[in-house]
Amino acid sequence: MGERPRQRRAQGRPRTGSRVAAVQALFQAEQAQANPETVIDEFVRHRLGELPGLPAVAGAGFEDGRVADVHVPLFARIVRVATGQQDTLDPMLSAALSEDWPLPRLDPVLRALLRAGAAELWMEDGPPAKVVINEYMDVAHGFFDGDEPGLANGVLDRLARLLRPAEFVGAG
């Protein structure tokens, strides 16, 4: 869990780009102890979308935290729900983790990823739980090379079964 995260671009997938950006924004808000609305505004103005006047080049600017292909309303909603419901979602995430790896001990990027995924699972009008879990698995693979994607999968699956049990009726 100690490896430094890496990032990949979700080219041509604006909803995935929204999730990547939400993880980055939640990480930044936690690290800087910043107001989530301020972070959302900063991302919308400075980090989302292609750079003006420059041709779109695959991966351009991504190393600097720029996400070119983003569905901004989804990005903002994930950040708002994750921060607005954090007092409810964090205990649920903690309960889904092992005692050896409590939420505060996790890598801060992984913690941001779990909060973003939990926020989407919290949204009753969001995509199906299995879609959310698969999307955050893809995002986790973009940030991590180790066991973190598997951990994210297990935690989000447990949380999905708690928050959306009807979607798992009859499933193994």
Spell out the blueprint of helices and strands:
Blueprint: H1 14-32, H2 36-46, H3 72-84, H4 86-96, H5 108-122, H6 129-143, H7 148-163
Structure notes:
The protein has 172 residues and is mainly alpha-helical. The chain has a single domain (14-160), classed as N-utilizing Substance Protein B Homolog, Chain A. Helices cover 58% and strands 0% of the residues. The chain has helices at residues 14-32, 36-46, 72-84, 86-96, 108-122, 129-143, 148-163. It is globular. It starts with 13 loop residues before the first helix and ends in a 9-residue tail after the last helix. Residues 1-11 and 52-63 have low confidence and may be disordered.
Helix content, binned percent:
55-70%
Total beta strands: 0
**What gyration radius follows from the Cα positions, in whole Å?**
15 Å
Class computed from helices, strands and strand pairing: mainly alpha
For the record, what CATH class applies?
Answer: Mainly Alpha
CATH topology tier name: N-utilizing Substance Protein B Homolog, Chain A
Tell me the overall shape.
globular
The stretches of 5 or more residues where confidence is low (pLDDT under 50) are 1-11, 52-63
| CATH-defined architecture | Orthogonal Bundle
Give helix and strand order, one letter per element, not per position. Answer: HHHHHHH
The termini sit apart by 29 Å
Mean pLDDT: 84
Strand content: under 5%
Q: State the fourth-level CATH superfamily.
A: NusB-like
